[in-house]
Amino acid sequence: MRKLILCLAFLIIPGLRDPSAAFAQTQPQVLYGQFDPIVIRSDRTQPVLFEAKVIGSVSRVALEYTTDPQHAGVDLQMRDDGTGGDRVAGDSVYTVTLQASMITQGLQVNDVFRRFVGFFRVVPVFGNVFEGNVFAEVITDQIPRLAITSLAADAQRTTHVMNLVDSDYATGVNPDVTRITKRFYQLAGDDYDFLNIVNGLSRFQNRFHFATKNQVLGIGQNVFHSAVEYGSAGNLSGINMFPISSFFDGADSGYQHELGHQWINYLNMQPLAFGLPHWPISSMASGIMGFTFPGVGEGLDYPCLLTPEPGGIRLTPRNGPPVFTDLDLYLMGMLPASQVAEQIVFTEQNKALVLPCNNQLFTGFVTRISINDILNKFGPRVPDSINAQKNFKVGTILVSNRLLSEDEMAFYNFFARRAEETKEVAIHIGLLKATAKPFVLSTRGLGALNAEINSPTLLTEEGTPRALALDSVTWTRDPFSISSSRNFSADGRTRIMLFAAGVELQPGETAAIVTAQAEDWQQRTFPLSVEYVGKLPGANWLTQLNLRMSDEVSNLDSIMVNIRLRGVTSNKVLINLK
Ligand SMILES: [Zn+2]
Predict the structure, then answer these.
(1) In angstroms, what is the span from residue 373 Cα to ligand 1's centroid?
(2) Cα dist from 526 to 411, 552, 560, whole Å
(3) How far is ligand 1, taken at its centre, from the CA of residue 246, in Å?
(4) CA–CA dist 43, 56 (Å, integer)
(5) 118 CA to middle of ligand 1, Å?
(6) Ligand 1 centroid from CA 339, angstroms
(7) Predicted local distance difference test score (pLDDT) of residue 26
(8) Are 364 and 347 in contact (CB under 8 A)?
(9) Please, which pLDDT band fits residue 14 given cuts at 50, 70 and 90?
(10) Which residue among 3, 193, 390, 425 is the one 20 to 30 A from 67 at the CA level?
């Protein structure tokens, strides 16, 4: 029997807690581990590869194959000698070849398309053995395939996922996330409150969240604004990182937990400080944010409800998935302070950790904390529950080292879209098989997520902000003059052609549904009229737009142009003028 730690990405080996300390010079570094293909079709007959990049001195790299985490499996050596499916000898990418049936046979409904297939193990020459759980992702006919919109040589998207190719990021050589988000904003409008970044080549790390701005008062978090560093003009509030693709599911409480870190927990006061950045073991800990115990960084589930009674606290098991608590919802801007009950925190956290949740009446020490205690220390939440934003737009970026296939895009689209789900669904995250209440349910219907990637994308010259723009008459590139004598129209104004992906007119809609604006270097904006919107013959994903240049831009050297369709803005592209 193995000792398992639920909900964690990998088994924790004592002494390996801090990755930076763990992988000091003599310790090998595991950059990623991933199947090829990343998503395996359930009817596949060709073998599949499991590959892992491991740098450093290792004596052995192996996959212990077993579909039952409770039982020991078959030890399969992974090779880096150019044999057994290994593509390049000596490139630090270790490979094992598996028959597809070893993964696809026996897939159950409660696997939710993700199958446990064993333990990945690195035995170093010196130091501790690294061990991680391995999950294979399997697509069946139950996941609908979708149209893919090509955006550039390194980018494509479906309705809910943008796939960016960045080999250095994906393989862990240069994991600078700002490069990824900046590329995203070259292709999408600044309409997203949060971004999810999912690694196509999985790193053995836990999920995490970080804020890119905070303008909310009263939650204990500083006010700051660094969205611009990530390429957002200002709308982006935070980023959720998913280093392991099989741990990404929009419906999962873990996904909502990361989102919740935008507001929770920054209340650095006793007795709440004990649990930062989560809660101490308390009435709040049974919610999605869970608890932290000193020495354990992750938020752990506390599936026990605390109810005050005369003479003590009743401990009842929580039936069903965690939701946000009343205090969580207050901090998120969804509940007024008046609806937050008094909270109960165990005074002796060590004892609380081992307290059976068996309907007992607990009569030991507790500390009670009211919303007034929090208001007195941190002030009221501004904006309050009437004025706060409650519906959020979340964009999902999947970073890989090649463009994903139709199967792979459909697979991650399915999981990204589950953030919008309105009913309880089965989840399988890590070794946990359960149901989850998606965001709209876990917030009591007070909040909602929109996970659609629906920005129109104006095409640019590869890797630059310069628009693919042509004079509509001469078909020449910019710089354009505002007026032209060689113009067929009475006003003598130049019309330019731009090309866009993701512009789909509904039946009955005309060019009037699309608006365009120019912005100068002082960020002054001027409307440009859109005179024509139509599909390019032979390229159904591409739309041509004709824009009329206006007097206001006549003295400018260059303008940034974007378009807007049904309330969603596109990226901004550069057009040079003369
Ligand atoms: Zn957390």
Answers:
(1) 24
(2) 41, 7, 10
(3) 18
(4) 37
(5) 26
(6) 25
(7) 62
(8) yes
(9) very low
(10) 425
Number of Cα atoms under 13 Å in the Cβ half of residue 550: 17
CA–centroid distance, residue 279 to ligand 1 (Å): 10
143 CA distance to ligand 1 centroid (A)?
A: 30
CB neighbours of 322 closer than 8 A, spacing ≥ 6?
A: 253, 286, 287, 288, 290, 301, 303, 437, 442
User: Distance, CA 8 to ligand 1 centroid (Å)?
Assistant: 12
Ligand 1 centre to CA of 432 (Å) is 17
Note whether 405 and 149 are within 8 A (CB): no
CA of 264 to the centre of ligand 1 (A): 9
Distance in Å, CA 240 to ligand 1 centroid: 11
On the question of pLDDT at 19 being above 50, the answer is: no
Residue 225 CA to ligand 1 centre (angstroms): 22
Q: What is the CA radius of gyration of the chain?
A: 27
- Residue 241 alpha carbon to ligand 1 centre in Å: 12
Domains of the chain (ranges plus CATH)? 19-139 (2.60.40.10), 143-455 (no CATH), 457-576 (2.60.40.10)
Where are the strands (E) in 219-331, listed by range?
224-225, 238-242, 304-309, 312-317
272 neighbors 232 (Cβ within 8 angstroms): no
Q: Give me the mean pLDDT over the 139-146 stretch.
A: 97
Q: Which long-range contacts (CB under 8 A, 24 or more apart) does 75-79 make?
A: 78/50, 78/52
6, pLDDT greater than 80:
no
Alpha carbon of 397 to ligand 1 centroid (Å): 21
Cβ atoms 221, 210 nearer than 8 A = no
Count of Cβ atoms closer than 10 Å to residue 455 Cβ: 27
Q: How far is the CA of 299 from the centre of ligand 1 (A)?
A: 5
Average pLDDT over residues 208-228: 97
How far apart, in whole angstroms, are the C-alpha atoms of residue 237 and residue 227? 7
Tell whether the model's pLDDT for residue 485 goes beyond 70: no
Token readout for 228 is 């611009």
